[in-house]
Amino acid sequence: MIVISTAAALIGGVIVALLLVGATFALFVGLRAAAAAGSAVRANRRFEALFAAAPAVPVLAYGDGRIELARTVADWLGLKELPGRIDELASVLPVDVLGALKNDILAAHRAARGFTRAVTVPGSSRTLMWRGERAPHEIGIGAVIIWVFDATDSQREIEQLSAQQGDMRGAFEALTGLIEAAPLPMWYRGADLKLAMVNSAYVAAVEGANAADVVGRGVELVEGSGHGGPLAGAVEAREQGKPHERLLPATIGGERRSLKLFDIPLPTGGVAGYAIDIEDLEQAHARERRFAEAQRTMLDRLSAGVAQFGRDRALVFCNQPFRRMFAMRNEWLADRPEFDRVLERMREANRVPEVRDFPSWKAERRDWFTEAVSAFEENWMLPDSTHLRVLAQPLPDGGLLLIFEDRTEQVQLASARDTLLRVRTATFDNLFEALGVFAADGKLQLWNNRFRAVWELEEEFLSSHPRVDVVSEQVASKLAHPARAKIINELVRAATMERQTRGGRFELADGRHFEFGVVPLPDGNALFTMLDITDSRRIEQALRERNEALENTDRVKTAFVANMSYELRTPLTSISGFAEMLHGGYAGKLTKQADAYVEAILESVARLGVLVDDVLDLTQADGEGVALELEDVDLAAVARAAADRLAPQARKAGIDYVVEINRSVGRVTGDPRRIGEVIEHLLRHALASVGGETGSGGRVLLHADGNAARARIVVSDDGQGMDAQAAAHAFDRFAQPGITSGGARALDLGLPLAKQFVEAHRGTIALVSEPGEGTLVTVELPRR
């Protein structure tokens, strides 16, 4: 027998009680969990239903390229299997779209930057909208949730609405631009009839700053209040529901104008309006009345008779010549007789042609009012041999204007003209020149016997009035060069169409030469003339051959002078060498008189050497041109060196030798040797002009300066100068004798050489001289 103590029993009871409480609690928790699970299942089913019915389907993308795609999205993309990575979408998406989508996912993953991208599925018209953002941590760490929904219908609707909006915006802008550009003042009033919009013409009319200023201040176009105020027309137009029109005065630009105002009610309750300035129209009507009066006054002074009939065929106006021409009395015309009565009155006065059936003739003239012809013209031969030209012009208002011109004198003149034409034809046929007249359309109209004989054309062919191209083809075989026959077409066209005078020469196959010319005539035709110049051509050829012979002779002369100059240099060199040896004492000491003779020989040899060099330069420049060795030239140094070389000669002659070289003379591109020779030639000419070798004194000036474009060299003297004829030929070769009366060298070759060298540098040289006043020579050289 087991004995349980009270304490043990108490402990056991407590344990049992605790177990009961624990079991009860566990049962409660289990029941509660089961209830919660059932609620969660129901909520999950509800969310699944909502999720299935939602227009957007989620897609989860991860930074490592994994992707969780719903079946719906796969179907939209045309995928048979669900992809596990985003790169697997390359089979259905273009490379650029897939790359942009991957960049969007990466940006959302790293920077939590949301994105929206529209993707068009290739091969279908479906458009999917992808909107992504970083997913909450509960969905997945590093995941990006993308909501994809089918935006095909909405995108199409958006495009349609955008297109409609663009059309409406364009229409609105065009309408606004039209209103703004309209030259008429235009405005719009709201439902309260206050100005809501005005155009530029309205602002200009009221002299406002801008449209906003005019609308803000409510500036009205017209003045007044009450029934005549600016709002009266708008009120009446809105009450009547139709446009309202009225005429009011207004002051625009400081002038009083008459405006026709139009108010048009709009469905919105507002009223639109515009104004037309009819002041000019009223003045135009007044001017039209004055013009009509002036026109009638002028018509009274015409020599032609004028009669105007209204749409009721009554005479509304006739001038004085009409009344005199048809013996119409003023009191009879005052009753405004009808057209038929006027014709009958004219017949009574024997002022209409004699016809067998006058009623029918009159009915034909009555049709002038209704015929759809711009004008009718006919000639009336009256019983007294008067010739009338009648012009009938239907008027737009249904009336008729008749003009009667007495052409009796013109008919007589035409008869005299026919006589003159016959005389002209006879004159043409007896001229030595061949003549042909071509019309503006190129057809041959007139010709003379000489024209037919030169080209050997048949009269039957010419009588058919052939075109100029046919004539040129016919005469081509008569020319030495048949292809030149086409020039006849061009010349006739130039004379008729371009009104130009042309000329030239033809050579016929038989050796004859003709000078031709094509002259435009006042009537639009062209006159083609041919003159036989065979004899003058032969004389011309003989003169040309003679000229060629003279030119050959001149070339032979030039070659002879050049060869002689070369041949002279050898003995001159020997003479100079031996004379220098004698002067230097190699043959023994000379007497003072012999030494003076040797010095004279050396001076003469030097002068002759310079003359030979000048002749050589002239002949070489004439044959082959001046050869230049171009370089950068310090013109001041070259000028000073040339002046120094002639300074001893000036001092020996007692000449006031002045050299002025400014720094502005600068540098030029040229041949320094030739430029130095130019200056020397000019200085020698100046020294010789003032008696440089006779010791008669005088003054010679060398001046040099320049600007940015050109350098200038001036050589002047106060010597004997030249007359006009000598100055005109100063630069001609061999224009003066080679030796002066005093035995000194006349530098007639210096100036021509200087001119050739200057022109070779593209410069200019000019000479000014007066007898007894000296000479001034100016040379200008370009910098480049």
TrEMBL record:
SUPFAM superfamilies per record: ATPase domain of HSP90 chaperone/DNA topoisomerase II/histidine kinase, Homodimeric domain of signal transducing histidine kinase, PYP-like sensor domain (PAS domain)
Catalytic activity: ATP + protein L-histidine = ADP + protein N-phospho-L-histidine
Gene3D superfamilies listed in its UniProt record: 1.10.287.130, Histidine kinase-like ATPase, C-terminal domain, PAS domain
Keywords: Kinase, Phosphoprotein, Transferase, Two-component regulatory system
Domain Histidine kinase: 563-784
Matches recorded under Pfam families: HATPase_c, HisKA, PAS_7
Enzyme Commission code(s) on record: 2.7.13.3
InterPro entries (UniProt xref): HATPase_C_sf, HATPase_dom, His_kinase_dom, HisK_dim/P_dom, HisK_dim/P_sf, PAS-like_dom_sf, Sensor_HK_Regulatory, Sig_transdc_His_kin-like_C
Entry GO MF terms: phosphorelay sensor kinase activity
Name of the protein this chain belongs to: histidine kinase
Organism of origin: Sphingomonas lycopersici
Lineage: Bacteria, Pseudomonadati, Pseudomonadota, Alphaproteobacteria, Sphingomonadales
